[in-house]
Amino acid sequence: SFCLKGEGLDGSFPAVIDYTPYLKFTQSSDSISSDEEELRTLGSSGSEGSTPEKIDPPFITDENSWYNKCKRVEQKYRLALEQKGYLEELVRLREKQLSESVSQNKLLLQRIEDMDLAHKMEKEQLEYIIVELQDQL
């Protein structure tokens, strides 16, 4: 259930579904294992003072593993690109809503000033009428 009290239902605001809570990074087991593998290779190549016990060729060219790694990177890139596009669209929508709110705020402030001026004029007229009535008594 939901409450409609005080809500404007004229349809001037676009219906927005906020997917921000669902944009979470989940690390799969494949990426965890590839991260661990990268750490091992970086850790072994980063120690220049120690002498390695076994010298491996610099790159093992297994076509299938390189293809899979490329596919995983491409999927991560596409996911990040989609999230970026969504977030940019969300920012544009929020900026538009902000500019509309600012313009509505200006209109309301102008209405308040006009009403205040009308109130002051009406008060002066009533005071003038009171003074005239007092003079007649």
From TrEMBL:
InterPro entries: RUNDC3A_B (IPR047340). Signal peptide: none annotated. Residues 28-60 are annotated as: Disordered. It comes from the Eukaryota. This is RUN3B protein. It comes from Nyctiprogne leucopyga. The lineage of its organism: Eukaryota, Metazoa, Chordata, Craniata, Vertebrata. The gene is Rundc3b.
